[in-house]
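Incident log, structure service

09:12 report received: a user says their structure output differs between two submissions of the same chain.
09:20 pulled the input from the user's history:
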Amino acid sequence: MRPGRTVIILAFAAALAWASAAFGWSFGVVGDTRDDKHGVFPRILDAVAESDMEFLIHTGDLERPGGTKSWEAFRRLTAGFPKPLHVVIGNHEVRGGDEQEFARFFGLPGPSYSFTHKNAHFVILDNSRGRFPRGTLDWLDRELSSHPKQKNGIRYLVVAMHAPPRTDSLTPHGMDRRYGEQSAKLLGILTRRKVDLVLCSHEHMQVVDEWNGIKVIVSGGGGAPMFPFQRFGFYRVDLPAEGSIRETLITVPAEAPAK
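09:34 re-ran on a clean worker, output below:
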């Protein structure tokens, strides 16, 4: 390769690296797609597939009632989605199956798991039975401590679960009587480990809350019946190289447009 061409290629690569660092990247998040009578979720999949969002997180309640047949239906529905799809176990998943069956079906290490994408570490938590199973929050603390911010390229820490934590503004339905205590323990861990963002659904609404400086996004508009005055849709989440996380609600009409 000629020296001049080498310099040009290296300069181009450096420009691409600078652009990536300057503008960051994005992903989508949605939950509560069961009982989707309006074809909302397929249109969300199309919107994410055709965008620059790099993957989609589904925060649970995939199909009713849960179990292998429901998960097979979900897999058929999402078979053409060309990007990574990360799933969270929800309460409807354990009505027709159990946690370990869910993990095996989707090829996960367990109902709680983690992954790293670029400069963000994501931790998925199981609270599908209205509580955090024994040891889950201790595991979360260890997992976050082993991926500290500002080390090994990690800038953002994100935690996803099906039901929201109990906060001053959010009181999720159908939870265990100990869930308030567990939420307080969760908040202590998230605060100590400097988590930036919590993703969830379960409440069939679109809400952005702030919990002791931590952003909580409830993205429950994937197709299940919505709370009054709420709209179907999903959130785009932007993780910039500098500054704070930004979220954008992208709404989807209740009825698919006529062709």
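09:41 both user submissions now match this output. Likely a transient worker issue. Closing.
09:42 reviewer note: Helices lie at 3-23, 40-49, 68-77, 99-105, 136-145, 179-192. The chain is about 30% helix and 20% strand.
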